[in-house]
Each structure stands twice: as structure tokens, then as C-alpha cells.
Amino acid sequence: TSIAIFASGSGSNAQKIMEYFDNHPSIQVKLVLSNKEDAPVLLRAANFMVPTYVFDRKTFYETTKVEEELASYKIDYIVLAGFLWLIPLPLIHTYPNKIINIHPALLPKYGGKGMYGMKVHEAVVQAKETETGITIHLINEEYDKGAHLFQISCVVEANDTPERIAEKVHALEHTHFPKVIEEWILKTRS
Ligand code: GRF
Fold first, then answer.
1. What share of the chain has pLDDT > 90, as a percent?
2. Virtual CA dihedral for 19, 23, 27, 29, nearest 10 degrees?
3. Distance CA 139, CA 146 (A)
4. According to the 3-state scheme, what is the secondary structure of the chain?
5. Ligand 1 pocket test: which of 134, 152, 165, 173 has the largest number of ligand atoms within 8 Å of its C-beta?
6. How many whole angstroms separate alpha carbon 10 and alpha carbon 152?
7. Per-residue pLDDT, 144
8. Is residue 88 scored above 80 in pLDDT?
9. Considering only CA atoms, which of 97, 72, 102, 92 is closest in space to residue 9?
């Protein structure tokens, strides 16, 4: 079974996923795609000898090039690991219940457009939340509204900064995302 990872940023989640599936008996990360040609995630992919593919908005939304690239690698599942663009409908239809995303909060709280990265943790601090966490969910037509596969919380201390919260949330992501991906694939692959 082949996975493609889409990422826009540092790719620490992508790193953990490539480590987890390195030498896996039946699941491989076959491709890493990004919308940013200088994204550090591309270097992480190179370290694992995983091919990469960079695209811009026009390519992603006005051509079938990304779908063709995925098909050429016979990709079965897509993992969004810090990918900040909306997934185009045709791609969602090609990969029904096969696109897995991670969100650094307890959806439906702090979800929706524009709520990503530090903005989420700043909003959590602003609201004086006593907990936050991560949500791993499927992508469907409605942004951040796909079925939840996994959710886990962590405590927010009164004096926690957004950076401190980001550290705790990243730790949860790195611990749980690879395993949740594996479980979903083993449960649903044909
Ligand atoms: C993570 O916090 C994830 O929840 C969000 O984007 C961030 C990606 O971080 N979707 P990294 O690039 O994997 O380090």
C-alpha cells in the first residue's frame, strides 16, 4: 500500500511518518508533495530517498498534473501533514475516505479556514482554555468537517505560551499520527 504525503512546512510530522513506515512490511511512503519549493520537508524526503513533487496554485487547481503524479506512483492513500491549501474536489473524489489530515486542536473547536499553526494556539491562550489537543480526520467536501479518526487532549496551564502549547501538541502529533494512519489503512485497504 502506497502513501503520498502533502506538506507545506518544516515537515516534522512527515519525518515521523517516513521513519515509522521505513521497512514496513506492506505500507510505503512513495511520494512527498509540497506547494513550497523551499519547504524543509523536501530535504527530509530526500534523506529517505523519497521522490518529491512541487506544484503551484495553477498546477494544483487548474490541471490534473498532481493527480497524474499520484497515479504514476500508484498512490493509495494521501496524508496531509501540515498542508495549508484546500484539497480540490476532484482529488477528494478520486480518494474517498483516503485522505487523512491532522489538525492541532480539538475540532470542531479552533477549526476552519485560517486556523492553522500558531494562530490556533494563540486563540487557545486567548480563550483561556484548560485543554487543547489534536484531531486526526478524513477529508471530505466540507473543510475540517471529515469524520474523526482520533482525538487526544493535553492540559493547558494558565501560564502556557502559544509556543509551549505548540510543543505539547507537536509531541502528541508525533506520537499518534503514524499509528493512526497505519490503523486506518489496515482497516480500509482493499
Ligand atoms: C502541525 O501542527 C499540524 O497539526 C498542522 O501543521 C503542523 C505541521 O507541522 N496541520 P510540521 O510541518 O509537520 O512540523
1. 92
2. 50
3. 5
4. CEEEEECCCCCHHHHHHHHHHCCCCCCEEEEEEECCCCCHHHHHHHHCCCCEEECCHHHHHHCCHHHHHHHHCCCCEEEECCCCCCCCHHHHHHCCCCEEEEECCCCCCCCCCCCCCHHHHHHHHHCCCCEEEEEEEECCCCCCCCCEEEEEEEECCCCCCHHHHHHHHHHHHHHHHHHHHHHHHHHHCC
5. 173
6. 23
7. 75
8. yes
9. 102
How far is residue 5's CA from residue 82's CA, in Å, rounded to a whole number? 10
Question: What nine digits make up the cell of 59?
Answer: 498546477
pLDDT at 142: 82
Query: ipTM of the predicted structure?
Result: 0.95
* Ligand 1 pocket, residue 104 CB under 6 Å: yes
Each residue's pLDDT tens digit, 21-77 = 999 999 999 999 999 999 999 999 999 999 999 999 999 999 999 999 999 999 999
User: How much distance in Å is there from the Cα of 81 to the middle of ligand 1?
Assistant: 6
The pLDDT of residue 143 is 75
Whether the Cβ atoms of residue 144 and residue 151 lie closer than 8 Å to each other: no
Name the band, by pLDDT with cuts 50, 70 and 90, for residue 117. Answer: confident
Q: Is 101 annotated as a binding residue?
A: yes
